[in-house]
TrEMBL record:
Protein name: Type III pantothenate kinase
Keywords: ATP-binding, Coenzyme A biosynthesis, Cytoplasm, Kinase, Metal-binding, Nucleotide-binding, Potassium, Transferase
Pfam families: Pan_kinase
MF annotations from Gene Ontology: ATP binding; metal ion binding; pantothenate kinase activity
Catalytically driven reaction(s): (R)-pantothenate + ATP = (R)-4'-phosphopantothenate + ADP + H(+)
Keyword hit for ATP-binding: yes
GO biological process: coenzyme A biosynthetic process
Purpose: Catalyzes the phosphorylation of pantothenate (Pan), the first step in CoA biosynthesis.
Gene encoding the protein: coaX
UniProt source species: Deinococcus yavapaiensis KR-236
Cofactor needs: NH4(+); K(+)
Gene Ontology, cellular component aspect: cytoplasm
Cofactor binding description: A monovalent cation. Ammonium or potassium.
Compartments where found: Cytoplasm
Amino acid sequence: MRQGPLLAVDVGNTSTVLGLTNDALQLTHTWRIRTNRDLLPDDFALTLKGLMDLSEVATPPCAVLSSVAPPVGQNLKLALERHFGVRTFEVTAENLHDVTVELDDPRAIGADRLANLFGAERYLADREFVIVVDFGTSTNFDVIGRGRRFLGGVLATGAQVSADALFARAAKLPRVNLEAPPSALGKNTVHALQSGLVFGYAEMVDGLVRRLKTEVSGDALAVATGGFSRTVEGVCREIDVFDDTLTLRGLVELWATR
Ligand SMILES: Nc1ncnc2c1ncn2[C@@H]1O[C@H](COP(=O)(O)OP(=O)(O)OP(=O)(O)O)[C@@H](O)[C@H]1O
Ligand SMILES: CC(C)(CO)[C@@H](O)C(=O)NCCC(=O)O
Ligand SMILES: [K+]
């Protein structure tokens, strides 16, 4: 097994999450920055140096990077290699020969979903399948089987994106925080909106998890991750486990098994 320290970077469409491990590959620091498509390699170098300096840590010799925003991933990789001499492993289906991506076109899979496959492995010990529900810009359902199988899943509009679309189109609707209201029956505009946006969203998630569990017809565990998962904790009934750092730890596991 390889040793840390390691930098793990997950470039999403909205946020980029970075994690630093110790020698034993346990996460010791995490940072979250906006994914800015306009930044160039030297901009990223300054950001990376700023984060490391703020936390008073040294840049590690190696990094693992998943990106679903291609130019950002490429520019970050260049920054890591040019400015810090960090050897960077980029997650792609082609780079992972031990993973079976059961999609029509395996190369189309998002790198974050491959990271989630590795993050799910720890839950596979006593289950046949794990359904990772990753609440980000989109909400992904990644169905993972033993033996590093990616069976497929669902891509749904993210909770914040669907809320923003509604606020933009309805003149009298205020922007509300995505938090659960006291009851489904709203007595004012804010609670009624929160009912639709949070309870409605949670029902969609529960319904899809139920459908997926039926379709795989095996013992399946549903694990939620991503920012919005905290909001639906206690609201979604079909989710068994909440795991904030599943994607980052998945990246670390992925790198460790290369
Ligand atoms: N601490 C939090 N508590 C409650 N809700 C949160 C929290 N952090 C984020 N969210 C909400 O969850 C949404 C998704 O969270 P997350 O930050 O994981 O995804 P993202 O960074 O927007 O997506 P991507 O990974 O695609 O870039 C956010 O848009 C926000 O509305
Ligand atoms: C679905 C997103 C946007 C989620 O981040 C990402 O995983 C992605 O761009 N995927 C490519 C398409 C696919 O995974 O089928
Ligand atoms: K993500």
